[in-house]
Amino acid sequence: MKDALQIHRCKITGEDGTAVYTDEVEIIQIKSPEIIRQPQNAEGKIGSTIVFTVEAANVKNYEWQYKEKKGRNNWITFSWQDSYDTAEFKLPILNEGRLTNTYRCKITGEDGSIIYTQEVFIYSIKKMILKLQYFD
Hints:
- The chain has 1 helix and 14 strands.
- Strands 6, 9, 10, 12, 13 and 14 form a 6-stranded mixed beta sheet that branches.
- β2 and β3 form a beta hairpin.
- It is mainly β.
- The N and C termini lie far apart (87 Å).
C-alpha cells in the first residue's frame, strides 16, 4: 500500500452539494545528481578503444566532453560518438590528439542541475624496444 502522504486527489463540490473527485496523483520528488564513482584514467594506443565509466544517481542525461591540450581551451561535447550520452563512454583512439586531450562527463540531474566528473586522461602505451649489447 502506498504512503497516504504521497497520493493526492481533488474533491470538487458542485452548487447542489454533489462531490466528484479527480484521478489520484503521486508527488515525486526530483533530485540533484550525485556521483557515486568517478571515471579513472586509462591506458591506450592509437588503434585501440578505451572506456571511461561514471556511476551516478538521479541522472537525466550524460554528456562526455573533451578539451584539447593544444589549441582550443573550451570543453567540446562528443556528439558524433555513439556512446557520448551514456554512463560508459567508448572512445576509439584514432590519432595522437586523443592521447593528449583531457576528458570529463557533464551530468544533468532529474532536477536540471549540472555537475561534472573529475578530469581524466589517457596514458599512451609505448612499444618497448629491447636492444641487446654484448660485451667482451
